[in-house]
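Researcher: Sequence recovery benchmark, item below. Answer with residues only.
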């Protein structure tokens, strides 16, 4: 065992190929080397070291990628006519308000999460916003923010020294 050097090794880490004798040594190994134990499917293998097992692994990886792409293409709400019509209407409303609205392609997670809407009665957009403060690694998601709300009003709960939550502001 490469961890305790006492017992005969029975297991091999798929990630870094270190030998271990027991579950306790496996856990120690993962903690000491910050190893997650998951084999890197895209790791480089030289031609001299390439085996039938590597070929099978690559083939299975490509099958998984194909299955994932196929599942994304079959996602029912992404390609439905109702979704396309709503998006088309939203783009038209934005164009009439002199807003350059751009959307991500089908299959992107952020496009699925986006909840921006247009209220025809009020003639107002309600935006899905993601506030990112890179200096402190903080992200906040706001849904249903009306388009007549100013940037100062949107940011007030996060950066205003008087009106903001002290914990959020300190972060």
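Model:
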């Amino acid at each position: 065992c490469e961890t305790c050097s006492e017992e005969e090794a029975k297991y091999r880490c798929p990630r870094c190929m270190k030998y271990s004798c027991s579950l306790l040594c496996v856990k120690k190994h993962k903690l000491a080397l910050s190893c997650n134990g998951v084999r890197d499917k895209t790791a480089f293998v030289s031609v001299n070291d390439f085996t039938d097992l590597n070929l099978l692994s690559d083939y299975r990886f490509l099958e998984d990628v194909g299955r994932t792409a196929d599942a994304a293409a079959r996602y029912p709400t992404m390609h439905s006519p109702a979704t396309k019509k709503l998006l088309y209407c939203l783009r038209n409303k934005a164009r009439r308000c002199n807003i350059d609205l751009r959307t991500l392609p089908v299959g992107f997670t952020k496009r699925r999460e986006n909840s921006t809407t247009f209220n025809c009665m009020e003639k107002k957009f309600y935006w899905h916003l993601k506030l990112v403060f890179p200096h402190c690694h903080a992200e906040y998601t706001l849904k249903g923010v009306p388009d007549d709300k100013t940037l100062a009003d949107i940011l007030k709960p996060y950066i205003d020294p008087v009106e903001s939550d002290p914990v959020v502001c300190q972060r």
